[in-house]
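Action item from last week, closing it out:
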Amino acid sequence: MLIRGRFRKIAESPETTVFLAPYGDPDDPAEGPHVRVTCATEGLRAEVGQGTFSARCLGKVQDWNATDAVLEVQAMAIFR
């Protein structure tokens, strides 16, 4: 699956980094559905700063959390 969006880093550990992006074009991006992308921290080429950035993510869907309206994706590659 190829996902294009405005991502922001929400968590980071030595093993994984997690990014979040609104799904679709909701009126309020903070309240609408989201895509949560998890990737290996060691695979990132550069430090990811604060704020949002445009990117494309090639990944595998892991789960749909209907309660939180979050699509969970395991990243294979993220292109900025």
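Closing note: The two ends are 16 Å apart (CA to CA).
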